[in-house]
Amino acid sequence: MKAGLVNNLKLVLTSCACASVLVLLPVGPTETSARTLSLPIKVGSYISPFGHYLAAFHAEREKNYSLAADLLSVTRVRDEDNSFLKDNQHQWLVTEGRYVDATALAENLLEISPDSIFGQRTLFMDAVSKDDWDGARTFLPAFPEQGLDAYLVPLQTAWLAVHDGKAQEALDALQRFREEPILEPIGIVTEALVHEQIGNNQQAIDFYQKALDLYEIPPERLVALAGNLFERRDQAQRAQDLYTAFLSQSPRNHHIQARLASVMRGDVATPLISSPRAGLAEGAYALARVIYRDNLDPVALTLANIALHLSPSEPAYILLTGRMLSGQKRYEDALTLYNSVEPDSLAYYSTKLIKASTLSDADRVEEAVAILTELSEQQPERVDALVQLGNILRRNEQNAEAAEAYDTAVERVSNPDDLGWRTFYFRGIAHEQSGNWPAAEESLKQALVLNPDQPLVLNYLGYSWADMGINLVEALSMLNRAVDSRPNDGYIVDSLGWVLFQLGRVEEALPHLEQAVEILPGDPVINDHVGDAYWLVGREREARFQWRRALSFDPIEKNEKEIKAKLENGYPKTASD
Questions:
Q1: Which residues, including other chains, have CB under 8 Å from residue 235's CB and lie 6 or more apart?
Q2: What is the pLDDT of residues 122-155, one digit of tens each?
Q3: Residue-wise DSSP of 437-494
Q4: Which of 228, 295, 297, 561 shows the smallest number of beta carbons within 10 Å?
Q5: Which secondary-structure segment (H or E) carries 87?
Q6: Half-sphere exposure of 132 (CA within 13 A, CB side)
Q7: Structural domains in the chain?
Q8: Cβ distance 305 to 314 under 8 Å?
């Protein structure tokens, strides 16, 4: 966040200084609200609307829509009725979920352009957020045939009809979703929700089952919605079976684990979707999830913020929007959202894990470690916080501490399958990097028990053996399998060449080492390996060239000393030695 803001400031100041035509106006306040980066840019005691205009569209390209909207508000002081400026600022405000500002601007937009789809959508959503469905009806636009509103308007129409008690009209509106296979599940789930709202519980159950049958592993949200209705219709065993089946495929899903524990305790379930307003929010959220998967971030963020505007406390919407913001490196905004999840929510534990990950991404590692340590102590039967703690510590080169976290996780499980191969792989790396090779080797071997053909594990263990000059025949077999799986992975190709080198088969090794350096020309270790092979086949000038290249890529201190010694004295021994 700070780096991005500094870059935008630099561009704004440059624009103001370099624009060939500047219109100078007195400095005035800009519109502000939650999740805003409002900053009037001064040139002496004046501002440049043209400079702000250029900066606004740069901020938009950088996906900083809130800053873009604030900058454009300054330009609009000079041209208040410019519909192009209003449309863009309005879209950016809605994308950011700044509905106080967006609503005011939408009202102004409709005064100029009464048929504005964007303005009508904003005022519709704002009225629904206040449960003013009569007011919302005023702003329901004509059905558009393209774009986002081709699917958002049917949702608006359907839930308005539900509010009015017109069930068939609601169901008819949702037929639009049958035309797009990727969106058909949204239509089916919404039909289930509509039936649930009007009291047709058996039809709702049937539609949920129809949606579940579309998937080999259904989405978490669908499982939560269907299971919630099963629980409330005295089908607790059916809900329990649904949760258990989901967890058999996604054993670390904390949210569904919490739902399973709740139903097994006999807790009384409350509806996840309890009103037409909440139903419309769910539809916007479902669309956002589909679009976000395809990386159309502005549209997805717009939809996610619509869902939040209508249901601001729903954890699913908070987490999705937070992930989008984190993906744009807007960590502070994401953390603010995560902090709004209530401690009594079934998603609270999941949110704390995601918050810790976001803190780590924001270089606030100590805070992330504190959260995960606390979670691991509060729930000693769980391992997810410990595994995440190990991952964060390892990524920050605190390998001894990471190994300790992984070891504690291993101690807590009776079945290694509960941790998966990745945890043992990362544990092996942490132990190896902290100097405990026996523990590293044991962990890497366990990772291969869980996933015998995993190329990353085959490579790490095989290369480690080759580098130590042990188990070379077994290492060669492992690395051949790894290369078969990933023939264009420079590190794995280098490992295969290196084990052949260690076996004294330098002529065979050389093509693999040369291929590896072509794939990863800037890696110091690979360049060093090629240099060693060149020396042993009598190509000493090329060997020195590769060693000098290796030095230019900042090798670790130990390797740097060895390379300098070879440049001075040549390769010290033969491969057979």
A1: 205
A2: 999 999 999 999 999 999 877 676 788 888 999 9
A3: HHHHHHHHHHHHHHSTT-HHHHHHHHHHHHHHT-SHHHHHHHHHHHHHH-TT-HHHHH
A4: 295
A5: helix 83-96
A6: 11
A7: 1-112 (no CATH), 461-577 (1.25.40.10)
A8: no
